[in-house]
Amino acid sequence: MERCSVMKAANGSQDGLDFNPMKDYMILSSQQKIAVAVLCTPLGLLSALENLVVLYLILSSRRLRRKPSYLFISSLAAADFLASVVFACNFVNFHVFQGVDSKPVFLLKIGSVTLTFTASVGSLLLTAIDRYLCLRYPPTYKALLTRGKALVTLGIMWVISALVSYLPLMGWTCCPSPCSELFPLIPNNYLLGWLLFITFLFSGIIYTYGHVLWKAHQHAASLAEHQDGQVPGMTRMRLDVRLAKTLGVVLAVLFICWFPALALMVYSLATPLSDQVKKVFAFCSLLCLVNSMVNPIIYALRSGEIRASAHRCLACCRKHLRGLGPEGKDDVPRSSISETEADGRVTQQWSSLTPDCSHL
After folding, report:
1. Residue 332: its pLDDT value, please?
2. Superkingdom of this entry's organism (predicted)?
3. Of 33, 10, 28, the residue nearest 20 (C-alpha)
4. At what angle do helices 188-227 and 238-270 cross, to 10 degrees?
5. In CATH, what class is 28-322+332-337?
6. Residues 1-44: pLDDT tens digits?
7. What is the pTM of this model?
8. For the CA atoms of the chain, what is the radius of gyration?
9. 3-state secondary structure of 187
10. Interior/surface letters 239-268, b for 16+ CB within 10 angstroms, e for the rest
11. What is the number of alpha carbons within 13 Å of residue 134 lying toward its C-beta?
12. Which sequence spans correspond to the domains of the chain?
């Protein structure tokens, strides 16, 4: 309540432009500010560039932008691109340059950061559900999840994320509610509600991917029975093992990048935090930016179709630089076909059971 009384006094002058209680959250030393700037700036730029490339590769391909699976991936790339820009700029401005804004501007900034990360996790959940539907209902997948349904689902997800994220801007701030130990103006009860919401999303991702892995294992076992030992066991189980490794990487990245920050948020609800713990939280927050940088590699650049789109774009660039030539015409088809056929030879019978699931 002491912090609330100081805030009321500060907010009574010039619409909060003298909002000095923000200083209580600016606890980094000079060396730590330099470290934050050195880490955050290149991470933000690299993450933004990666996600921008993924967006361009999907949206520039008529075939990819019509497929629901790649609409979900493009939503993830858009959220991560915005997260990279918005989070990096505001994080450096707040912790390094100690920029102080009016109350509405600050709430708009922190709401935008919350929106981008919430939409990123929401896109991850929709991507997981898409993969589950593709394996669970292969004959009716295209009819079950059309482009129109995917766009409506994405729209609902973004609207819900925006409503949840901008609640503080709409008036849900601290005072008289207890203020968060980690975020200025944010009440503990709102932070608890957001943590429950994000936990629900993560639980959905883990639960869905668990079903994806189990369904893949069932398909691999069924495939092995139908082949009657004609194909070596290592080949029969190749896709099953590969999918298990992919999902293991997905869940490991989510845990490493999100758990430290979320755990400290939960801890802050139970007890006051020292400046040392707040400093640890500031650096743990950078791991969420790392997650936005890694997502394009896991979900997009490992896709043969997106790599084929990249080959086509590179071929177009070479044509513009060198002029039209035979090598510009031949490079792309050879590369893209070899990428897709390599997996197709091994998993041809799998593909017949799960059509249009190449994005897995």
Report:
1. 40
2. Eukaryota
3. 10
4. 170
5. mainly alpha
6. 455 555 554 444 444 444 456 777 888 888 989 999 999 999 99
7. 0.81
8. 24
9. strand
10. bbeebbebbeebeebbeebbebbbebbeeb
11. 24
12. 28-322+332-337
Contact yes or no for 179/187 (Cβ under 8 A) = yes
C-alpha distances in Å from residue 73, one per residue of 58, 60, 126: 9, 14, 9
pLDDT digits (tens, 9 = 90+) for 316-343: 777 777 765 444 443 444 333 333 333 3
Give the C-alpha separation, 310 to 71, whole Å: 17
Which of 1-10, 47-56, 160-169 shows the lowest mean pLDDT across its residues? Answer: 1-10
Q: Which pLDDT score, from 0 to 100, does residue 324 have? A: 53
Neighbours of 290 (CB within 10 A): 16
**Tokens read off for 235:** 């080949």
Question: Would you say 172 and 107 are in contact if contact means Cβ atoms under 8 Å apart?
Answer: no
DSSP string, 304-339: HHHHHHHHHHHHHHHHHHH-S-HHHHHHHHHHHHHH
Q: Which pLDDT value is given to residue 339?
A: 35
What pLDDT score was predicted for residue 11?
Answer: 47
Tell me the C-alpha distance between 96 and 107, whole Å.
19
Q: Which residues pair with 187 in a beta bridge?
A: 179
Residue 179: strand, helix, or coil: strand
Tokens found for residue 268:
């802050």
- How many angstroms separate the CA atoms of 52 and 83, rounded? 12
Eight-class DSSP state of 171: T
For residue 330, the one-letter residue type is D
The per-residue pLDDT of the chain, averaged, comes to: 79
Cα(323)–Cα(327) distance, integer angstroms:
10
For residue 289 the two structure tokens come to: 């930016």
Alpha carbon distance 193, 347 (integer Å) = 44
